[in-house]
Specification:
The protein is an alpha+beta fold. It contains three helices and four strands, in the order αβββαβα. It has a single domain, classed as Ribosomal Protein S5, domain 2 (2-Layer Sandwich), CATH 3.30.230. A four-stranded mixed β-sheet has the order 1-2-4-3, sandwiched between helices. The longest helix has 22 residues.
């Protein structure tokens, strides 16, 4: 089983605020990611699934687990800080379709990184 160590997580409010304030917004279906190049040797992930968007805790937890699992298994992620926001309707998707949507988001992030950050 893969782990999700502390060094791969956004841990505090300051980390989230930096990504929200100066990060690039990348959107797919009902997922939006704010992405900012980091100076760490690893990519880091933060997840925001609000009760207003997804009322049931079981659904919020399923979405967060899927995001973390796909992040752990996606080995080619560049060194960026990512905050993912989930929106209404995402809880209605089956696990395979949700996984596809998350992987699609990761690919968009990689494309953005290749285009705008790789050379700098």
């Amino acid at each position: 089983m893969h782990s999700f160590p502390r060094k791969k997580r956004l841990l505090n409010k300051h980390d989230y605020e930096k990504v929200f304030s100066s990060g690039k917004k990348i959107a797919t279906f009902q997922l939006t990611a704010f992405v900012k190049k980091n100076s760490h040797e690893l990519p880091r992930l933060g997840v925001v699934v609000s009760k207003r968007q997804i009322p049931r805790a079981v659904d919020r937890n399923k979405i967060k687990r899927m995001l973390r699992e796909c992040f752990r298994k996606h080995d080619s992620m560049p060194n960026v800080d990512i905050v993912v926001l989930a929106y209404k309707g995402l809880e209605k998707l089956s696990n395979p379709i949700l996984r596809e949507k998350v992987i699609e988001l990761w690919k968009k992030i990689e494309e953005w990184y290749e285009k705008y950050c790789k050379s700098s």
